[in-house]
Amino acid sequence: MVALAEAVKDSIVQFLTHTGWLEWCGVFTGILCVWLAAKNNIFNWPIAIVSVVIYIFIFYESKLYADMGLQVYFLLMNVYGWYFWNKNRKSTEIPTPVSQITPREIVLSATGIIIFTFILGFILRQNTDAAFPFIDSFCTACSLIAQIFLARKVLQNWLIWIFVDIIYVGVYVSKDLYATAIMYALYIYIAWTGYKEWKKTLTETV
Q: Rounded to 5 degrees, what are φ and ψ at 197?
């Protein structure tokens, strides 16, 4: 019992001492933008832009290069998502509707994830000091697909996020990014909430 208490104490101390102000800013904006996306709120996009810029620097310092590159992609997709969501709202004052994933999209997404994971993983393993080249690449590939579906308002984007965020929690704990790990654990809950809310919206429009 004493050993367990000491382990918990050490974890808390490590969490507080290893988390810098930049990571806290990234955590705050990251949680806020995902929560707003789950609520179907268009303001998730500008806040997401701030968050990904912060994490470009954080992941570079942690040698998570695939994740760093992913943030650059997120930056571009956040701009696109902001445009796509806003385009329909301006013309009709009705939010862009939620849609379902198609069988063709499932096949293409799975194929793309497999190919991307092996190619990027091999490149990172051979040419960089990446911490987890193939795991990092797999999570990056899943995130690429999920972000496209989020921007296009495809319901199943939330299920992909739940899956990949579970993996990310373990990766970030291993890299001493404790606040970020907690953020991704919250993402899992928010993503599940987003899935239920978007599914309800989809059902009401059918």
A: -70, -40
